[in-house]
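Section handout 9: paired folding examples.
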Amino acid sequence: MTAGASFRPKGIYPILYAFFDERGALDRRAWRAEIEAVIAAGAPGIAVLGLITEVAALEPSERRTLVEWAIEDVAGRVPILATVAGRDLGETCALARDAEAAGATALIVQPPVGARPSEGELCEFFADVMAAVKSPAGIQNAPEFLGVGLSPPAVRALADRRSNFTLMKGEGPVAVVKRYVDALSPRVAVLNGRGGLELPDNLRAGCVGLVPAPDCADWQMAIQAAFLAGDEARMDALYRDILPYVVFAMQSLDVAILYGKRMFAARAGIDNPCACRIVRDAPDPFLIAAMRRWSARFGPYANQLGAAA
């Protein structure tokens, strides 16, 4: 799906897991099934190549492959946000141009992998990447996970410099993310992550949506729908139902990948062993039992929330 530089996402954009086959290669069949599951659930768009996709363990060629697969399998039905993460400016710009040429709707740029630039250096890096493409672009501002980030004034200054800077993906408590909403809205759409922690308050604070793992994104879509309909009682009730699982999954990135991928695959009927590249440990039976206990209410994916009605 193409979009002009004014594109601003809104809603729950699940960020997809990478599935691997028995040889350790990317599993195209499972990837396609994941896309079909989240679109059938009503996702207004999808995101690819985030931390939950195990992007740090993917070769540049594999990152390009997943973007190409996503664009082919989505076939223009919803927008696609492609995360771009390179080791330096040259590699990041090349990956950004590749994603743009493949047809990604918008780009989310991460800081250079493994680097710790100053705030000024990071601003220049983001500005240079955005200048290298024509597509709508944004940043992943996640210092808790990536080690570096920008303050609200710095992000606002970046928006003043680049007209195609239209979105920011945060990864922080609502008390932090609201400062970015206040500094950027309505020029830049702010979405949060963190698996959906504090989702109702993020919406009340002005976030336009969320970029969570797909695990319970169907429920999170229902939460946002209730908010937009003015039914905050239903929104809060649905959030109470998913909160124990979200807290479980957000213990660490390893937990989110190792157990969240399995839970989502089971809900969506995806037949895959759920191997991981980042997490080498075998699943702990204790944590498998916790995952099942806290997600028991969810039911099959795209179930129209029959269990929550």
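Moving on to protein 2 of 2.
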Amino acid sequence: MTDYRERAARLDRAVVWSVSARPGPVPVYPDGCMDLIWTEGALMVAGPDSRTFHAPAAGASEYVGIRFAPGTAPALLGIPAVELLDQRVELAEVFTDRRARALVDRVDNAPDRVAALEAIAVELAAAAKAPDPALTAVVDLLAAGGSVADTAAHTGLSARMLHRRSLSAFGYGPKMLARVLRFQRALARIRAGTSAVETAVSTGFADQAHLSREVRDLAGCTVGALRTG
């Protein structure tokens, strides 16, 4: 049986989570986020996904992670999100081997690994530049269903500048980010028991057929499969 837990992190716009005895494969749907994940002697960085990632069956008994909201992790890790698009890499590919090994050892030897990983994230954030309010606004506006054009106008960014900065912060352009965030709104409604028709209308899709196409494209499954997947 899987034991999954999560809570809001001490770091703004982040969630810490843990899971044990994970079966597999497990679908990880696109959400625009990036994760720092520990498991038995390794720290991994999960980049933003543009399609569903199927996590293999657990090779370890415990996983701990911190999930950063879209646009948050690149400043902490010092790497553009687009370089990690659809990838899972060892932390040593982002930091030096020595620094990565020290952080791995720190979590390995901690009595509370969730707290240890959370503390590392807080320290990385303290050493990084403050979040760009324009990019935070981009996420919030698109997550609320705003259009890309209105988002650009609100933030004062040209279409070209918005696209360039989005690649660095989110891993893909604002149109793709909008699609991913709209999918997440729909996923929440579907799992809450809302019908496909109501979900499509309330989350910004043209109709139920549009919702079905996007679910197949981003999740690789049917709308019905999302209810339990």
